[in-house]
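lol forgot to send this yesterday, sorry. struct tokens for the thing we talked abt
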């Protein structure tokens, strides 16, 4: 009985050693750490790359598939300094790629998340003036264009009530409108080159209207959900309810670039209605009484605007804060919400 036990032990010990040798052979290089990396913008961090084989022909370090460095026939641990100043905010990946003398390729990968380098400035929105708002409007977008106010609405009852409308700011009256009909659920709007762009929530279509006649000109398509939209004079910028903003070609809606929105501590998701104001992106955060001010170059949150006073005055029996409009001519800022009875002129205090 003891002899059998000994044979079994030797058998498993033999294959256990063989298995360990295989694992060693299959891991000629790796990062020295298992956890993902978290840094703030402009921070530096030294990492160690463990070289476990003398049979590596070339070793490459990549950031999101971009080559950062390359070593020929490395033979010992490599110390490498990560400099985050050239890295985008958000989560990307570092990869090690070892090409062996035999031609085999081995990889090791870690995520790296970059947060903004400074905390956002906290400000409050103060009411300057109040105006009537149609409380049957489920506001999704609010936009001034050539001194006229436009509004886009959704259709939570699926009754075909989504629309784009010209609104009289002083009375809340609808002056003209274009209905989407079923099955469309209207979302945010923006105006560029005499054209109103209106997103749809799940239909993956952007409707383009003549800004004067509100007649449909064209329909563009995109993937994913549509939430908020604005423009910087050249590109259309959209949100999809995540922490990402997409810069698009206004003619084709093709994505030109994507930025991720972060504070110094975390990403900011549920980005909804958008407005481009004096070189910054203002965004409602869905289900929160705040508007965040975003750097369009980096995605860093520069300011957080507390709108709780506005919500307290305006919500009534309505729903969340949603709707930001900036009049370039008067330099005045306006906000409202879904099913609200008021639109407010506000200022940052």
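and heres what i got for the seq, position by position
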């Amino acid at each position: 009985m003891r002899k059998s036990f000994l044979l079994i032990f030797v058998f498993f010990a033999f294959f256990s050693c063989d298995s360990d040798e295989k694992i060693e052979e299959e891991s000629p290089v790796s990062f020295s750490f298992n956890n993902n990396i978290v840094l703030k913008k402009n921070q530096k961090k030294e990492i160690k790359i463990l070289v476990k084989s003398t049979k590596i022909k070339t070793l490459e370090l990549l950031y999101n598939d971009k080559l950062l460095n390359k070593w020929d026939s490395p033979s010992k641990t490599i110390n490498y300094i990560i400099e985050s100043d050239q890295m985008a905010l958000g989560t990307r990946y570092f990869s090690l790629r070892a090409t062996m003398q035999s031609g085999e390729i081995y990889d090791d990968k870690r995520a790296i998340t970059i947060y903004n380098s400074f905390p956002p400035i906290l400000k409050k929105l103060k009411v300057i003036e109040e105006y009537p708002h149609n409380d049957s409007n489920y506001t999704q977008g609010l936009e001034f264009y050539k001194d006229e106010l436009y509004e886009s609405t959704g259709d939570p009852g699926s009754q075909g009530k989504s629309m784009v409308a010209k609104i009289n700011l002083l009375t809340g009256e609808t002056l003209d409108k274009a209905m989407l009909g079923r099955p469309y659920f209207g979302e945010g709007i923006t105006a560029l080159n005499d054209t109103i762009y209106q997103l749809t929530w799940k239909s993956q279509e952007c409707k383009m209207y003549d800004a004067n006649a509100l007649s449909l000109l064209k329909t563009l398509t995109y993937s994913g959900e549509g939430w908020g939209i604005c423009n910087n004079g050249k590109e259309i910028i959209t949100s999809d309810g995540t922490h990402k903003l997409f810069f698009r070609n206004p003619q084709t809606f093709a994505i030109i670039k994507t930025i991720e929105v972060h504070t110094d501590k975390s990403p900011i998701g549920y980005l909804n209605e958008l407005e481009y104001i004096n070189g910054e992106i203002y965004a409602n955060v869905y289900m929160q009484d705040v508007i965040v001010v975003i750097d369009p170059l980096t995605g860093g949150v520069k300011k957080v605007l507390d709108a709780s006073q506005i919500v307290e005055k305006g919500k009534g029996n309505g729903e969340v804060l949603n709707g930001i409009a900036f009049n370039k001519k008067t330099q005045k800022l306006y906000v409202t919400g879904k099913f609200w009875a008021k639109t407010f002129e506000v200022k940052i205090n």
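The CA atoms of residues 15 and 284 lie 60 Å apart. anyway ping me if u want another try
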